[in-house]
Amino acid sequence: MSTLPSKQLETFDNAVPERDYTIHIETPEFTCLCPKTGQPDFATIKIDYVPDLKCVELKSLKLYFWSYREEGGFHEKLTNQILTDLVAATEPRFMRVTGIFNVRGGVYTNVVAEYRKEGWVAPTPVHLP
């Protein structure tokens, strides 16, 4: 196999650092293991962020997600760990990670974790009729 899972997140320079804009990333194929049973858990992970000077490189993000496939963890911990790792790599102005975990035993779990750079203020949205 030419690629392997990795916790190493790569970045590239933001081409438009003077502007606030949102990057939305979504992967419906996140998998990890239940820490109690060892059975697989499946989730959609959504990332919304306003970059500052760096953006996350997508192939490294795919390999990063792949690295969780054989790891056990509670949904809350995993979602927050993904946020922590992405913030450390990219140092964004704002980031939100949402973990939407598939039903297990009749229970759905959605976890939302956010980071806001100190001093950053979200721009006022423009609402057009």
Automatic annotation (TrEMBL):
Question: Does the entry feature the keyword Cytoplasm, yes or no?
Answer: yes
UniProt xrefs under SUPFAM superfamilies? Tetrahydrobiopterin biosynthesis enzymes-like
Which Gene Ontology cellular-component terms appear in the entry?
cytoplasm
Tell me where it resides.
Answer: Cytoplasm
Please describe what this protein does: Catalyzes the NADPH-dependent reduction of 7-cyano-7-deazaguanine (preQ0) to 7-aminomethyl-7-deazaguanine (preQ1).
Which organism is this protein's natural source?
Methylophaga nitratireducenticrescens
Annotated GO biological processes are: tRNA queuosine(34) biosynthetic process
Name the chain's protein.
NADPH-dependent 7-cyano-7-deazaguanine reductase
Q: In which pathway does it act?
A: tRNA modification; tRNA-queuosine biosynthesis
Q: Which PANTHER family match?
A: NADPH-DEPENDENT 7-CYANO-7-DEAZAGUANINE REDUCTASE
Q: Which UniProt keywords apply?
A: Cytoplasm, NADP, Oxidoreductase, Queuosine biosynthesis
Name the gene for this chain: queF
Which superkingdom, per the lineage?
Answer: Bacteria
